[in-house]
């Protein structure tokens, strides 16, 4: 295995990873969003290992990762061939989305083919599919010649990993887990998920860096938020809305409104003495905040939504290991481009603190 600073790309190592998958083993690999914990999507025992290793309840469905066709930018028909073993209907909308955004950080939910294992889908009649853009993920998938299920490579309820070192620290006890090293993930938060299976409207199930606005601009397709635009008689979209907690650090985490750092402390009557406060790099939000018994330390975060997303999990992980009593993050600004970050931060707040394990998450 490579050292943490040397991205691992040799063919020999990828071949070894392919063999590990074929043998029913697990391989953690980089994607452009976060690292995934991969297993052969046709092997029920290997899929079971994913759930056990993560400590994830078996009714939480997994995303199937597929290789892009060799000439994906030229022929729509290639994508149809790639998807055919997995999904029942490939709509016009699906093809437009695929041609605009795959390979990339977009997951699509389809009606599943009969042969797709119930272990993947949590017994539902739909399957989530994505073609990741990271070159190591693509090489692995191309050589494997099959689907790879891969949840984020973190223990259930914890922050998703954005480097090979993060994965190793999540699974320290798992001797022999193969981890492909592709450096730091560029996108930094999980893929946008759009449900195409629930009737006429594509429905946003999880916000990410690909936003409904961008989808509309590139494809003309209107994506609805769950519950929007429902007419009488429409099927209710299936959303994972009950999953409140997720991506949670062990240190308590809260959001503060612009200039209201001290307000965020009122919830903690036994005033915390060491508080890390994330601030925008353009201006210090901490400003005049002062408190007789609290030591604040500022941590700069980018004011661009994409750069912020790219840094978010890295910062949460690092801060979580530095022994703060409380971590404060600024409330993200209004605007769709912040929805992915806002979603992750709110869930991280909800599940944060030492006793977060009872919350529902991935
Ligand atoms: O960026 C990503 O999507 C990363 C990388 C590794 O590809 N993967 C990831 O997987 O975030 P995971 O398992 O941590 O999250 C998958 C999400 C879950 O919220 C799950 O409920 C949803 O996808 N999902 C999977 N199959 C589904 C389905 N058939 N219908 C609705 N939601 C589904
Ligand atoms: Mg996850």
UniProtKB/TrEMBL annotation:
GO terms for biological process: regulation of translational fidelity; tRNA processing. Required for the formation of a threonylcarbamoyl group on adenosine at position 37 (t(6)A37) in tRNAs that read codons beginning with adenine. It is an enzyme of class 2 (transferase). Its EC number is 2.7.7.87. Belongs to the SUA5 family. ATP binds at residues 56, 126, 152, 160, 206, 247. Keywords: ATP-binding, Cytoplasm, Nucleotide-binding, Nucleotidyltransferase, Transferase, tRNA processing. The keyword tRNA processing applies. It is found in: Cytoplasm. It catalyses: L-threonine + hydrogencarbonate + ATP = L-threonylcarbamoyladenylate + diphosphate + H2O. The keyword ATP-binding applies. This is Threonylcarbamoyl-AMP synthase. GO terms for cellular component: cytoplasm. It comes from Polynucleobacter wuianus. NCBIfam families: L-threonylcarbamoyladenylate synthase. Residues 11-210 form the YrdC-like domain. GO terms for molecular function: ATP binding; double-stranded RNA binding; L-threonylcarbamoyladenylate synthase; tRNA binding. L-threonine binds at residues 33, 65, 130, 150, 191.
